[in-house]
Amino acid sequence: MPFDALTMAAVADELKEKAVGGRIQGVFLPAPLAIGLEIYAHHATHYLFASAHPQHARVHLTQGRLSRGSEDITPLLLLLRKYVRDGRLAAVEQPPLERVLSLIITKAGAFGKGENAGADRTVGTTHNEEADNAAITTVTLIIEVMGRYSNIVLVDGNGVVMEAV
User: Fold this and answer.
1) What's the burial of 159, exposed, middle or buried (CB within 10 Å: 0-12/13-18/19+)?
2) Which of 5, 27, 32, 131 lies at a 20 to 30 A Cα distance from 117?
3) How high is the pLDDT of residue 114?
């Protein structure tokens, strides 16, 4: 079945209805050129499968739990764990007549649990400095379904590519 712009629009509408506002509980690699997201939204768990396979590129919600097909730890998986897991799916965008889907994900305090988590606080720390540590980070997961030119790209808030499949 061809994955055209109308199919992508239907997937975008389904994601907007079922998953926007949901918390991303898990990220994993079901296949070498695919990612899976476990999203908890509207009192239900949804599984998003996105593949950049040359012959079977697609993106869709699945009924059942996705299996962890690949045990490899890739740079994309590490970045997804850091910036996407425990984040919120803030929005789903699809440019008109394009086979591109953008998932905008926000995460509060992405750096708050990192290397400075156990550091002692200085006496002069103000509330504003603490608020900066808990800043909201925004990343966009762009899924392009274009046959053998398919791609899955993680982009930061400034539009800089962080990693791609």
Assistant:
1) exposed
2) 27
3) 41
